[in-house]
Amino acid sequence: MAGVSTPRMAAAVSNAGGLGSLGLGASTPSAARSSILELQSLTSRAINVNLFVHAAPVSHDINTRKWLDTLRPHFARYSADPPDGLREIYRSFENDSEMLEMLCELRPTVISFHFGLPPAPTLDRLRQSGAVLFACVTSVAEGQMAVDAGMDAIIAQGYEAGGHRGVFDPRGEDNQLSTVTLVRQLVRAFGPHGPHETHETPIIAAGGVMDGQSINAMLELGAVAAQLGTAFVTTTESAADEAYRSAMFTEAGENTTMTSYISGRPARSLRNKFTQLKVDDGVVVPDYPLTYDVGKALNAAAKAKGEAGYGAQWAGQGAPLARNMSCAELMMVLEREMGWEG
Q: What are the C-alpha distances in Å from 54 to residues 62, 92, 167, 170, 249?
């Protein structure tokens, strides 16, 4: 939930008995340090920080030019021009030694990875700092890679999940497994009765989980926990703007769609002007996060003129089930729906 999660949100979840998480994939080491320190000042309980481990983008001048030309008329609607080129606005944790040193110093309880796995020496350093390591996967093959890398738990991200698809190779085949199917396959492969029963790896379910009943369903399937993101977009502590929050409860929330147009990687979003872009044959979306550079510029130009339809309004298929309340209230509601009330 990079861009939406806040230290206040994560602290409220942790203080209520969950594992509060900070999405730091879009943060510089300096900004990440400030966020972690703020979070640690708000809770003494376990916290998670999430990092992006994407492959370095490859820039192709022809693809870049065609993509900028595709977006040029949209910029013109808001009296703006696209940038002359595309920048790598986010550095992958795969090669961010400054971020690694900061994490080893501040020692967050859990560190989770999205888009892939860091190299073995980096994982060794994090383990030496005492961190528990999670990895998001979208297939059993990726799960095997996570197990081989020694992950302490695997996050099973179903296709219905909001935000960026965690596929390790965005250009490769994606079987688009649902959360239910993926959880069952991973539990069978790496759970207590699978072929790796001497080294069981816990499975955490993610995607379409919005209430206590769906959490219970994931536990029944063999997951040890559930990870919720979209359910927290509309909470008081979320950084989502008003247009994003409001759109969650409109027809756009009932028609989420997977798109690469906003950032360069497949991601599930509320249906908006960006997701409905018309792209000519032969136009290739540039790599992540190069595409995100111009995507953010178009959103800024449109918002300056009062149009919020080009935002990265990430949301899963459960968006219509979201609720307007504080994180503490939502945590209490989830526990009551799970039957945890004493």
A: 22, 6, 10, 10, 32
In angstroms, the CA 244 to CA 57 distance is 28
Contact 332, 211 (CB under 8 A): no
Report the sign of the C-alpha dihedral through residues 234, 292, 78, 280, in that order.
negative
Contact present, 203 and 227 (Cβ < 8 Å): no
- Rounded to 5 degrees, what are φ and ψ at 126? -65, -40
Reference 32, options 117, 94, 103; nearest CA is: 103
- Per domain, the residue ranges of the chain are 7-56+92-238+325-338
203-247: pLDDT as tens digits: 999 999 999 999 999 999 999 999 999 999 999 999 999 999 999
pLDDT value at position 262? 96
Which three-class secondary structure state does DSSP give residue 47?
A: strand
When pLDDT is averaged across residues 170-180 and rounded to a whole number, the result is 95
Predicted confidence at residue 179, as pLDDT, reads 98
**Residue that is written with structure tokens 């399937």 in the block:** 221
H, E, C per residue of 206-256? ECCCCCHHHHHHHHHCCCCEEECCHHHCCCCCCCCCHHHHHHCCCHHHHCC
pLDDT band at 274 (very low <50, low <70, confident <90, very high): very high
Q: Report the chain's mean pLDDT, rounded to a whole number.
A: 95
Sorted by sequence, the CB contacts under 8 Å of residue 243 that are 6+ apart come out as 308, 311, 313
Distance CA 112, CA 21 (A): 9
Report residue 148 as tokens.
Answer: 């081989």
Q: Name the band, by pLDDT with cuts 50, 70 and 90, for residue 340.
A: confident
pLDDT for the residue 223: 97
Residue 194 reports pLDDT greater than 80: no
Strand pairing category for 163-164 and 153-157: unpaired
Q: Which of 173, 134, 179 is nearest to 156 (CA)?
A: 179
Of 116, 138, 319, 153, the residue nearest 228 (C-alpha): 319
Question: 7-56+92-238+325-338 belongs to which CATH class?
Answer: alpha beta
